[in-house]
Amino acid sequence: MDAVNSHVNDLLTLYTNLQSRFCGNLGLPHSIQAAATRIAKKAVELDLVAGRSPISIAAAAIYMASQASSNKKTAKEIGEIAGAAEVTVKQTYKLLYPRAGELFPEDFKFTTAVESLPLS
């Protein structure tokens, strides 16, 4: 069990580091970074993104969080910063989208409701 907990902690650290770097380079606030980290972590826990790279998952989580906020960034902008193709960001986002309501932190301040998020 310690190995599993260690792996989960390693993933959480990785996503936190990726989100911090990518969101910083995109000029996004800490609230988006925190939401994107939670989205990525929860997506992994729910096994929504099996086989996807941490960078793709991080980029898709940032895309989802930004689209729900007033700080919207395109998949292309995020992909350029993250080093992922726009299509990869959107494909990974599509895996998250059906469960979006479960992925956000409870205290997230939505500007765009989950039901109104883009389909891709």
Automatic annotation (TrEMBL):
What sequence ranges are listed for the domain Cyclin-like?
Answer: 17-98
| Gene Ontology MF terms | RNA polymerase II general transcription initiation factor activity; TBP-class protein binding; zinc ion binding
The places in or outside the cell where this protein is found are: Nucleus
Q: Which GO terms describe its biological process?
A: transcription initiation at RNA polymerase II promoter; transcription preinitiation complex assembly
Enumerate the SMART domains for this protein.
CYCLIN
Q: Quick check: keyword Nucleotide-binding in the entry?
A: no
Predominant location of this chain?
nucleus
Q: Mind naming one GO cellular-component term on file for this protein? A: nucleus
Family listed: Belongs to the TFIIB family.
Q: Which PANTHER family match?
A: TRANSCRIPTION INITIATION FACTOR IIB, TRANSCRIPTION INITIATION FACTOR IIB-RELATED
In Swiss-Prot or TrEMBL terms, this protein is called Transcription initiation factor IIB
